[in-house]
Amino acid sequence: MKQWMGVPVVGALLLSACVTINVYFPAAEAKEAAKEFVEKVIQNADKVEVKEMPPAGGGGMAMRQVIRSDLSGFDPWVLVGIGSAQAQAAPDITIKTPAIQAIQTRMEARFASILRAGFDSGALGFTEDGFITVRDPSKVDLKDRVALNSAVADDNRDRKAVYREVAVANGHPEWEDQIRAVFARQWIASARPGWWYQSGGSWKQK
């Protein structure tokens, strides 16, 4: 009787051991991927031509037309073998999927058209959790605040989406929080001199 009672116990222990085995999070690879993504968003904002369009009806905020000066926003080869990264034996981080690159392209255009000016003026800041916020609305003309708030909301939606997409694209949705933390550090690391960011709950300027 004692011999048979020991079988379920051994089985339970084996099951428990299997549950606790996790694929390690490739922190170094995630950092490199985040740097590539973030720098492309910020640097490519320097490669677009922003034309001021007169406001319709003669009032309100001027429209900004963003014209890409290069075609680096999308790599057509990502359409071939999208799932190849997931088939690799060793964990890796890929950001070369249509969904991720579509988000990246939107963020580049938004950064060039309105967000960069907000960071340059000190109105915007990077938060510690990988998002952006209006740090000092007094740095923005009253007539432009609605447009800026809308752009911040849109960008934060894209940020949340890209952190999720990167985790899912690499076959580990459970990595989303870790991906977001890595990107959060990279946004701050890539911030230009004079831009604001959160650290330890307080605002600091690079």
What does this structure look like?
This protein is α+β, with helices and mostly antiparallel strands and 206 residues long. The protein is 49% helix and 13% strand. It is built from 5 helices and 6 strands. Strand 3 (124-126) and strand 4 form a beta hairpin. The longest helix has 25 residues, at 145-169. The protein is globular and about 50 Å long.
Write the layout of secondary structure elements.
Elements: H1 2-19, H2 27-44, E1 48-53, E2 63-68, H3 98-121, E3 124-126, E4 132-134, H4 145-169, H5 176-190, E5 196-199, E6 202-205
Parallel strand pairs: 3-5
Antiparallel strand pairs: 1-2, 3-4, 5-6
Helix pairs in contact: 2-3, 2-5, 3-4, 4-5
Summarize the structure.
This protein has 5 helices and 6 strands; from the N terminus they run H-H-E-E-H-E-E-H-H-E-E. A 4-stranded mixed β-sheet has the order 4-3-5-6. Strands 1-2 form a two-stranded antiparallel ribbon.
Q: What are the salient characteristics of this protein?
A:
single chain, 5 helices, 6 strands
The total count of helices amounts to: 5
What's the gyration radius in Å?
A: 22 Å
* Major sheet attributes: 4 strands, mixed
Mean pLDDT: 79
Our measurement of the CA-to-CA distance between the termini, rounded to an integer number of angstroms, reads 71 Å
Rough shape?
Answer: globular
H/E element order: HHEEHEEHHEE
User: What is the percent of helical residues?
Assistant: 40-55%
Instruction: Tell me the strand percentage band.
Output: 5-15%
- Uncertain runs are 9-21, 48-90
Counting helices, strands and paired strands, the structural category is alpha+beta
Oligomer: single chain
Work out the number of β strands.
Answer: 6
